[in-house]
């Protein structure tokens, strides 16, 4: 009896899962401690420290938002694998250089450059989306998400330990090494059966949406991705500083911050595949709406936390909500976008995610600098409620359009 050969798309999923894991682990290994690293570069007052932390977090996403559509258009011509290699090799170099920064402005500048080379995870989604059978898209996207989330889970814990023992520079060097491994894995194991669009074909925004039946829903998913990123990244510039305040500046702050940063990843890691399968059965709309409602319910009580334990429990719960958000928006776009423009749709999505990752931390830095760290959670709750309204209105209008057309 001959053994059934595993299809190439499944092999690609495993290789890209590792690439997503390396990207998530490397990035999260240093990010929770970036404010503490900046604090070592000078004697900054609270408002200035939160401002610099916000700029350092946001700079990489600002440049990413600008260049992502360009990379997406190029991917539709050259394939997703070259874009994956471009991203992983670029981050290998830029992450290593970040660890060599001697002042805060050099740090911000290098991260700005890093953003022009990022985009590994979104290109991984785009490659898989173009190949996966439609009836397995939800569970496959959920499984692919566990790679990134698993990395985000283990990264802060390892980074917290390394930072506490060896200082804040080593995690950046580890990030570079992880991306080197991702580059090798992608180069050796990922094979893409790519058919480029004709050079004469249009590659504008309007052309990318040609063939999409539910355009309002796809646009809503892109806007939703932006608001999700704004909400989830808003705490990044202040998480270690807030933990430091809750611990009254005693104990191993870096390691504790790493644990707090990792807790959402634990919940997402276990719940994302289940919610992905559930979405295949009941529809992604219901999962997304439930996730947004649950997210608002969890974010709001964070305003009142007085201990690290309370913050940790709520952060764990927000991880369950996260599993029902970004993976589901990716699934909707996978189902709706035609193969000829899937890279551009995902690149627009990445640009909006990047915009959210700029707006969220900068708003949080302003709120924390003017008011207090805990007011960031009220701001985040408002963003989630706005997101919920956007999704509800888009689905409602699309259903009206479908009904009237069929009539």
UniProtKB/TrEMBL annotation:
GO MF assignments: transmembrane transporter activity
Keywords assigned by UniProt, alphabetized: Cell membrane, Membrane, Transmembrane, Transmembrane helix, Transport
InterPro entries: MFS, MFS_dom, MFS_trans_sf, Tet-R_TetA/multi-R_MdtG-like
Transmembrane regions: 12-38, 50-71, 83-108, 170-190, 217-241, 253-275, 287-310, 316-339, 351-369, 375-395
Localization per Swiss-Prot or TrEMBL: Cell membrane
All residue ranges annotated as the Major facilitator superfamily (MFS) profile domain in the record: 12-399
PROSITE patterns assigned: MFS (PS50850)
Protein name: Major facilitator superfamily protein
Source domain of life: Bacteria
Membrane topology: Multi-pass membrane protein
GO cellular component, one term: plasma membrane
